[in-house]
Design goal:
Elements (H helix, E strand, L loop, with lengths): L19 E4 L3 H11 L1 E6 L7 E6 L2 E6 L5 H14 L4 E10 L9 E8 L4 H6 L5 E3 L2 H14 L4 E7 L10 H9 L3 E3 L2 H11 L2 E11 L8 H6 L2 H11 L2
Parallel strand pairs: 1-4, 1-5, 5-10, 6-8, 8-9
Antiparallel strand pairs: 2-3, 3-4, 5-9, 6-7, 6-10
Helix pairs in contact: 2-6, 4-8
């Protein structure tokens, strides 16, 4: 087993990272969470200068760290956290585009399963399925946390895509109709694969940032600062 620091996380003391990590894609969202919700905050760095933070929420130590964009990036960071830093649970908190009229901009979505065309799971671990489930036990706790906070929570199977731009603009319709995916993002499938391979737990909360149906779009600043419901749900779970 490799010693810490790892090739991508510069932290040399595993005790500085909590057992539960909240993982937004955007490192600025990680900083926003630390600045807004956590107390007694300390900072750790990655080798790409994407800061992570550990602090307290309701007296419980929690870490938050950006994953970067896409499955290769979250695949590296989440693997190193699970395998070398003793992290037991990672909750991705990200944004998604809606494929379904039932999911509207600013809705909070609990991911039950991620479908992907990606070869990540097959190449890394020999997993041949196209869909991976999130942790049922963590999902149950997220449901309880959302109910306690009075935050409506929608549940969905999602599409984890490697592609943002495509020559086929209607590909999303095929994914929605064939595989039952209600929204799209770019990270969860790799996170779930790592958790399954390493015997860890992973879940994902998403906020709808734009819609393929209504064509509504939020700004980058809104995505960074206003998607607080999913943050509050994840923090509530992690503080128990």
């Amino acid at each position: 087993m490799s010693k810490i620091p790892t090739p991508h996380i510069a932290c040399a003391d595993a005790s500085l990272i909590a057992k539960t990590v909240l993982m937004p894609g955007d490192p600025l969202r990680a900083k926003f969470i630390a600045d807004t919700f956590l107390t007694d905050v300390s900072c750790f760095t990655t080798t790409r200068n994407m800061f992570g933070f550990t602090g307290k929420y309701n007296g419980k130590r929690i870490s938050v760290m950006g994953s970067g964009m896409g499955m290769p990036s979250i695949g590296i960071y989440s693997y190193e956290l699970f395998a070398f830093y003793g992290v037991e649970t990672i909750i991705r908190i990200g944004s998604a585009g809606s494929y379904d009229a039932d999911l509207k901009v600013y809705d909070t979505v609990l991911v039950t399963e991620a479908y992907s065309e990606s070869s990540f799971a097959k190449t890394a671990f020999g997993m041949r399925g196209r869909s991976l489930k999130s942790s049922s036990s963590v999902n149950n706790k997220l449901r309880t946390a959302a109910e306690a906070l009075g935050i409506p929570l929608k549940e969905a199977k999602i599409h984890s895509s490697d592609v943002f731009y495509s020559s086929n603009p209607d590909h999303w319709k095929d994914v929605h109709d064939t595989y039952g995916c209600k929204c799209v993002e770019m990270e969860s499938f790799a996170l779930f694969a790592n958790a399954k391979a390493l015997g860890k737990k992973a879940a994902c909360l998403l906020t709808i940032s734009d819609s393929f149906i209504s064509h509504e779009v939020t700004s980058s600043e809104e995505r960074q600062k206003n998607f607080t419901n999913m943050m509050r749900i994840a923090l509530e779970l992690a503080s128990k």
